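Milestone M4 deliverable, item 7.
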Amino acid sequence: MLRKKTQSEANNDKILISVKEACELTGLSEKTMRSLMNENCFMVRIGRRTLIDKKKFQKWIDRQS
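Output delivered:
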């Protein structure tokens, strides 16, 4: 029997995440997240959407600590 994935399991499968999802994961505000995206190289633009490359974002977080 197939079961539906929870929100956190679905996020683990994604390569790109939205700004809102990144804010929920980190606890940062959207304004702070967008500032970080502009200063660093983990932002991806697809059409009008601004997304975050999850692997690059994780590497950036790891370098900060």
